[in-house]
Write a structure and sequence with these properties.
alpha/beta, about 200 residues, five-stranded mixed beta sheet, about 45% helix, Dna Topoisomerase Vi A Subunit, Chain: A, domain 2, Helicase, Ruva Protein, domain 3, about 15% strand, binds zinc ion
Length: about 200
């Protein structure tokens, strides 16, 4: 049985989300149909508002409503420490854990050289520029504890090899295969505390 055209369109649009297949898109679409109209309006509005209001921070490449973002603009933070993460959600996780008071750099991706794929457009150039501009005494690589995270940490190390800056990586012992964003405060604190020079 074919769906009405408008419903089919919604299902097609939802199935464009990463990791969302046809079946999940159908479930989400029917959830929208069953929900109050107010919620549907709020959902549609929030998508447009987030698109319209957010920008990429020119310093850390993170997502914010201003550039520089509130973290980069905060003079109370330790500007000699730079924590390199894969995604904006990792910044959010580390900030919520309240264990770190330095600045961030968001790579906007990860790379596993063993997969043989080309290196994605990581923000390594702007990272190198920031380090070369001076004032940073340590770069803490906080990529995920998995193969992609390892490959990405290597890429960061290579990109910064000519700068002479100290590059460290979060301690092993984080559960392998778990994203930074899922780690609890205690494990994150241990990982920062036990970081090793790369
Ligand atoms: Zn920023």
């Amino acid at each position: 049985m074919a769906y009405p055209r408008s419903l089919e369109h919604l299902i097609e649009e939802l199935s464009r989300f990463p990791g969302v297949g046809r079946r999940t898109a159908e479930r989400l679409a029917f959830h929208v149909l069953r929900s109050p109209e107010e919620w549907a309006k709020s959902l549609a509005g929030s998508i447009l508002e987030a698109r319209a209001r957010t920008v990429r921070c020119a310093m850390c490449e993170g997502v914010a409503e201003s550039s520089p973002c509130p973290i980069c603009a905060d003079s109370g933070r330790d500007r000699g420490l730079l924590c390199v993460v894969e995604q904006p959600r990792d910044v959010d996780a580390i900030e919520r854990a309240k264990i770190y008071r330095g600045l961030y750099h968001v790579l906007l991706g990860a790379w596993n050289p063993a997969e043989g794929t080309d290196r994605p457009q990581l923000t390594l150039r702007s990272l190198e520029r920031r380090v070369r501009a001076g004032g940073i005494r340590e770069v803490i690589v906080a990529t995920d504890p998995d193969l992609e995270g390892d490959g990405t940490a290597l890429a960061v190390h290579e990109a910064l090899s000519g700068t002479g800056v100290k590059v460290t990586r979060l301690a092993k012992g984080m559960p392998t295969g778990t994203g930074i964003e899922y780690l609890n405060r205690a494990i994150l604190a241990d990982a920062f505390e036990g970081r090793r020079v790369l």
